Amino acid sequence: MILLAIDWPIVGIKTLQFLLSFSILVALHELGHFVAAKIFGCRVDKFYLFFDPWFSLFKKKIGETIYGIGWLPLGGYVKIAGMVDESMDKEQMKQPPKPYEFRSKPAWQRLIIMLAGVIVNLWLGFFIYSMILWNWGDQYLPTSEVKYGIATDSVAKSIGFKDGDKIVSIDGKQYEKFRDINKHLLLRKTHHVTVDRNGGQVNIPIPDNIAKTLIATKNVNFITPRVPLLPIEKVLDTASAAKAGIKSGDKIVAANGQTFQYDNEVRNFIKSHKGDTASLTVLRGADTLNINTPISTDGTLGVYFSVPELEKFFTMKKLSYNFFESIPAGYTKTWETLEDYWLQIKLIFGGKVAAKDSVGSLITIGSIFPATWDWQSFWSLTAFFSLVLAFMNLLPIPALDGGHALFCLYEMITGRKPSDKFMEVAQTVGMILLFGLMIFALGNDILRLFR
């Protein structure tokens, strides 16, 4: 039943975008290691996009290096002679060091080689963000323009927010961009939010566990701009709504005698009447129809409501950048993205968010891409994941670049080089940790699919 419920064309589009983005990031990351190794005279035996256990999809030897594409899209690698890496080539390490091997180079050169991939990903994220701002600029909804107030879900209501509240400030600070409000409440410690409610100001205290609650309920955007009623975009053929006579383009204006003005009121009514039969008043063109339809036990009608186009309801603010202006703006965007990601990591390691609710595998990453091919979204996500890849590779785990860099720094400070045997054990432990994390993340995603 799960396989039948999946919209496979959308999955295909998302998968293609993910594979293209991931290939760009991995190839350029490994290219950073490759170029740095060549500059310092190291021999590179292999350059691979994706992993190749047992066989390769493609490989060709050019000079001393085999270039190839593996079949397992979990990353990529360059095999540098004389280095303890994913290949675990112990035979090579038993031989006397050669001048062209990684282990024969000074610690500072080995450090640069190990950090080169991270540096490339940092520069790539910065470059893409700058080019996005140059080409498309930035458009956002000013908080002051949210004229209908906010739409709240059950979590927001439990805290004290109400539909129609207008955000004034967070801990006394006003936010120009409405999109920054949810991000602040999720990532940063917040004491209270001040709202305008019917002309008067109300302070709403924010609980310390708000981040954990939002991630556990999979609703980090729990405060959204309230918009007028929206038409139904699609009705599933097998849904009770279709059998009752509801069609695409219909607009639900009332139910059980309760009149609606805003889109979230319709959604909230449906969710709060699970398993009931509702008497809906539907506007279809110039006609007003009364339709009785059952609501499923999970609180759905089997319809997709239109996604609100904010430009139709609000005055958006558009920022344009020339080439030279896009450079500092891209730097600011890069720094803000890294800071926000670091705060997310702190939530996990600080125990404020459960790992099972926040850690995902390639399935989660792929699902983030849009259902239709949109180049601005594609490049924005590619820039974001490039910075994530740089950050994650800096973690001091032996199998990652950060672990190798840590050993190089230790050698530079103490003058003592870790033995090859120690490096082999450390690499093995690091790979076990990484594989364990990948299995945990994949298991999380599979459980979410079944839920």
TrEMBL record:
Question: What EC number(s) does its UniProt record assign?
Answer: 3.4.24.-
Return the InterPro entries for the record: PDZ (IPR001478), PDZ_6 (IPR041489), PDZ_sf (IPR036034), Pept_M50_Zn (IPR004387), Peptidase_M50 (IPR008915)
Whether Transcription regulation counts among this entry's keywords is no
- The residue ranges of the PDZ domain are 122-199, 219-286
Protein location: Membrane
Q: Would you identify the family this protein belongs to, as annotated?
A: Belongs to the peptidase M50B family.
What is the protein's given name? Zinc metalloprotease
Task: Record the organism.
Answer: Haoranjiania flava
